[in-house]
Amino acid sequence: MRLTKKSDQPSATSNTSGLGLSRRRFLQNSGIAAGGVATAGMMAPGMMQQAQAAIVPTGAPTEVKRTICTHCSVGCGVYAEVQNGIWTGQEPAFDHPFNLGAHCAKGAAVREHGHGDRRLKYPMKLVDGQWKKLSWEQAIDEVGDKMLQVRQESGPDSVYWLGSAKFSNEQAYLFRKYAALWGTNNVDHQARICHSTTVAGVANTWGYGAMTNSFNDIHFSKSIILIGSNPAEAHPVAMQHILRAKERNKAHIICVDPRFTRTAAHANEYIRIRPGSDVAFVWGLLWHIFENGWEDDQFIQQRVYGMEEVREEVSKWTPEEVENVSGVKGDQMRRAAKELAENRPGTIIWCMGGTQHTTGNNNTRAYCILMLALGNMGKSGGGTNIFRGHDNVQGATDLGILSHTLPGYYGLSDGAWKHWSKVWDVDLEWLQNRFDQKVYRKLKPINNKGIPVSRWIDGVLEDKAQIDQKDNLRVMVCWGHAVNSQTRGVEMKKAIEKLDTLVIVDPYPTHAAVMSDRKDGVYLLPACTQFETSGSVTASNRSIQWRDQVIEPLFESKPDHEIMNLFANKLGFGEELFKNIEIKNGQPVIEDITREINKGMWTIGYTGQSPERLKLHQKNWHTFNYDTLKGEGGPISGEYYGMPWPCWGTAEQGHPGTPILYDTSKPVAEGGLTFRARFGVEREGQNLLAENSFSKDSDIRDGYPEFSDKLLKKLGWWNDLTAEEKAQAEGKNWKTDLSGGIQRVAIKHGCSPFGNAKARAVVWTFPDKVPLHREPLYTPRRDLVSKYPTWDDSESMYRLPTLYKSIQDKDLSKEYPIILTSGRLVEYEGGGEETRSNPWLAELQQEMFVEVNPVDANNMGFRDGDDVWVEGAEGGKVRVKALVTRRVDEGVVFMPFHFGGHFQGKDLTDKYPKGAAPYVTGEAANTATTYGYDPVTQMQETKVTLCRINKATA
Amino acid sequence: MAKMKFLCDSKRCIECNGCVTACKNENNVEWGIQRRRVVTINDGEPGETSISVACMHCTDAPCMAVCPTDVFYQTEDGIVLHNKDGCIGCGYCLFACPFGAPQFPSDAAFGERGKMDKCTFCAGGPEEDNSPEEKAKYGANRIAEGKLPMCAEMCSTKALLAGDAAEVSDIFRERVIYRGHNDGAWAQTTLQNETDLAYDATQPKA
Fold first, then answer.
1. Which of A363, A425, A696, A745 has the lowest tally of Cβ within 10 angstroms?
2. SS3 for A440?
3. Spatial distance between the Cα atoms of B115 and B103, rounded to a whole number of angstroms
4. Which residues on A lie below 8 Å from B33 (Cβ)?
5. CATH 3.30.70.20 corresponds to the domain B4-166
6. Is A25 or B59 the better-scoring residue by pLDDT?
7. What is the pLDDT of residue B196?
8. CA-to-CA dists, residue A308 to A375, A760, A762, angstroms
9. Residue B108 has what pLDDT?
10. Which segments of B28-112 does DSSP mark as H helices, in order?
11. Whole-angstrom Cα distance, residue A697 to residue A701?
């Protein structure tokens, strides 16, 4: 590859030849479109620099702030240097235990957030197709009046509150509480379309739905199998840990993916599977494991329920059938299974490639079962290391910005509302009356799951008689969300056009602001980034980290919690929302919110991480061990960095956090744990509790159920409670006792507050008890449909009719013969609005493209660098550049999903408010993606659909 | 005296471009110029290998040899720097450089190209250390602050190493020993039946 710079001038001719060497060749050949952007791009950073030079005198004192990268969930530490309030420097945090100063392209470019020249600068609204500036007061008034009107006419469920994984923990918690006080469960965020199937599948297997170990703990792995995960692009700093295991621990790395990814290039073995055949593949591995007796019998006998039923299903997955369904040959399957068996402890890593499927909940459970069979759970070097996406998607999930639960996975039952209304100190009856009181399918809206983010478009477009609520959605609030990360772009455009009002609260205008033909009824409210406020953030490994405020909010933007305060007051529930939270200068005090979180989140142990403890950890990054994350000496010796949840009991109890879930080799008081007793104590006469397995120093030398006042009394431990604790603990259990006494006493006796049970390989409450392979809704393998059909259509899931069989039954494989899958690029994140607005990143990826195998390109009659139309099976189409590469297999094409600002061939860049268009725009991959939702969580299908490709003419 | 060098460990480089944006960030490099680039061979196929490339600060630098206005100079630490004031934008250095390090803000011919720009090993230029003039023309001077180039300091997998050649080779040597196999050093993956691409001057090229 030539090392010359790319053209920075618009050129008259577009050079389209020879793009094949690398996707970054686009840089040099990016003729007309990108050249134009480049010229504009040269202006802004230069001007910004001049502005800074004028404000910051040489030698102005430098303040160093400690913050955390806002891009992915690895949680890399950042030293931000600030002079006279301007972010002038970024230094590597060599002493941060997760990244040792390292960053990927995004992390190394976060200082650009301090420029923000493409940000949305003030509140705006669309009037006759033109963006008009508004004051904050006017914006809140107009939007608020509209909401109150819709509430009056259609009920509180007709306003949709779409929150964000970009919130801090405090903002996330406040947002869920805010939606509850508005009176709806129509509140959700990106976790729905990220790892919802993981959370459901994994939590239903052994208790909690999170990454069990940590990035650092991978150092101890002897084998690493990555399936549907590409950390080299999505979590680059995780590769630091993975490669360390490979080099120092001789870990054997197996990368399973339909594409030969950048991660695959560093693996010992690459296995190419057909998209959507994960369960078949995992059962294929288990077939060899069972056949050769490589499973961990003792572990299964002591800590796993239902493995026999799995064995039965696995026996059908002979090497021949696995090859037929997934495309992987028997000898490669056997070799992989043998490597995993011979190299224990081993870990499995998965991401969106596994979760974003109609069958996502089956995939995630199959991965768990593989680790259970090998006895890899609850061990250093083992575990299911599930890498979350956004920087705070773990925290936002934990704090319940979800339509099916309140914070802490308490659910929506009457008991859950009782618990939280007590924590919030609001009257339960008042709260219940905030909701629509009618009953739909035997459920009141307060107890019924709301519409998930993946389906909001159906909430707008579906016949309202078919929806389990009063009316369609009429006002949509996208509060930190990129709609181009969602499937079915063409229908989304229709939905946006049908809405009464679209409200976008975001640092950037986003694709949603421009994709529709609306001429009015769109509001843009500028939120600031997490660098412009402070608060806590939960990394993928469950560690909670504190962020300093680096700079003041830019332009007229405001922190999200301040905007929530403005709206809550306008909408009439500000007093209840902030009952125990002080408002200072219009801003709710973050630490007060953290303390309220501590007060209620007993289920997953967000109770011990007080703001004071979090700040102390933040100031002592250097004292934590790089491999174990344990504090060694210093003020917090013995605690684990960020007190990974569960951090049991109250802050005063000083629990160190739990670095590895379900690790029985440590006492619970020192971070040990058992599997959670969540599913009862017995089923069909079989014991569900652990047998002869318990955490170190446990007073109960066997399995036990979850702790409650009754169990304490039965065990004779009731009097270990103080009189004060007793008063609060009476009639309560470990989840609802606000004194923390029940948890304290359980831990004192070496027990896990949530019990000690077996993990379950069989989830009898799910559509498929044992995970089954089911063909995707849009599959080219029609011969497999009758043998592995999808589910029947459902009249109602999450309030909406949901289709399966009726879609799969239509054979579209002739018209649309190619599998379309999607994924990430390292330079961009999510919908890409923020990263495409950062010139340092945007310069590196200027063109939206589709990866096509040379055989398919030749058969379909186009060449590398040609413009092509990719048309999805439901008719949505995108015009993109062809990148011909063997990275993808024949019959499979790939598109990155970060682009936006074009729609079906039309460039919409001019429709952004002036000066707020990203440097790079392009077709959104999801304009071409199709229907398909997981039956447990309503996860969208982005990884397997069908398409056809034609060369674009003119 | 230290001899400053870069080394990119191709077994570690994942083409994340962290080095590229770290450089942009630290030196305020304008759009269109990339002092550092990541080069990938066999992209998307077994054997895919990446390295990060910038000015290699050659001991006997060809750019210095060909410059008609003699703007280049080498610091005591072996860092190759240049004086933009004397640069006439002729582009000879670009033709002489085997790594494509020198770049120009404009594509036009000769003097119209503008002043040449390249990696400074984060060591600024001839102006006073860390003066506003130096910062505006060349970017950061981390060496004067006792720090190393930002690209290497921020590398996501610690693939890109920078510093005194002796130290850099010690780190790399230790890694090769840990890896413990004959292809543990440069290039190529450990996939079955793949030959090592490592450059070995004693062997004829395969």
1. A425
2. strand
3. 9
4. 5
5. yes
6. B59
7. 47
8. 15, 11, 9
9. 74
10. 62-66, 92-96
11. 9
CB A760 within 8 A of CB A205: yes
Q: Which residue in chain A is spatially nearest to B55 when comparing CA positions?
A: A3
Tell me if residue A91 falls in helix, strand or coil: strand
Place of tokens 């995970």: A771
Cβ pair B107:A7 closer than 8 A: yes
Question: What does the buried/exposed string (b/e) look like for B27-55 if buried means 16 or more CB atoms within 10 Å of the residue's CB?
Answer: bbbbbbbbbbbbbbbbbbebebbbbbbbb
Q: Give the per-residue pLDDT at B179.
A: 81
**Please, which residues bridge with residue B163 across strands?**
B5
Mutation for B interface: A30, A76, A843, A919, most B CBs within 10 A = A843
Q: Which residue numbers in chain A have pLDDT < 50?
A: 1-21, 24-54
Q: Do A5 and B31 touch (CB under 8 A)?
A: no
d(C-alpha A735, C-alpha A408), whole Å: 10
Angle between helix A590-600 and A414-424 (nearest 10): 140
Residue B64 CB: number of other CB atoms within 10 A?
Answer: 17
Contact residues for A584 (Cβ-Cβ < 8 A; gap 6+): none
R_g over Cα of chain B: 18
Using alpha carbons, select from A94, A100, A95 the residue that is nearest to residue A74: A100
Q: How far is A118 from chain B (nearest CA, A)?
A: 15
Longest Cα–Cα distance of chain A, Å, equals 86
A113: closest chain B residue by CA = B25
- The ranges assigned to domains in chain B are 4-166
Does the structure's ipTM exceed the value 0.85?
A: yes
Cβ burial of A716 (10 Å; 0-12, 13-18, 19+) is exposed
What does the angle CA A796 – CA A801 – CA A806 come to, to the nearest 5 degrees? 120
Q: Can you spell out the DSSP letters for A612-667?
A: HHHHHHHHTGGGB-TTT-BB-SSTTTTPBTT-PSPB-S-GGG-----SSTT-TTS-
- pTM for the model: 0.94
C-alpha of A652 from chain center: 31
Question: Do the Cβ atoms of A46 and A57 come closer than 8 Å?
Answer: no
Q: How big is chain A, counted in residues?
A: 954
* The predicted structure's pLDDT at residue B107: 76
- Band (pLDDT 50/70/90 cuts) for residue B181 is low
Cα angle A618, A623, A624; round to 5: 85
CB contact under 8 A, B25 and A90: yes
- Mean of pLDDT over chain A: 94
A2-54 per-position pLDDT tens digit: 333 333 433 333 343 333 335 544 444 333 333 333 333 333 333 333 344 44
Pairwise CB contact (< 8 Å): A239 & B157: yes
* B103/A21 Cβ within 8 A: no
In the predicted structure, residue B44 carries a pLDDT above the cut 50:
yes
| Number of cross-chain residue pairs from A and B with Cβ atoms under 8 Å apart | 171
Tokens matching residue A491: 């229908």
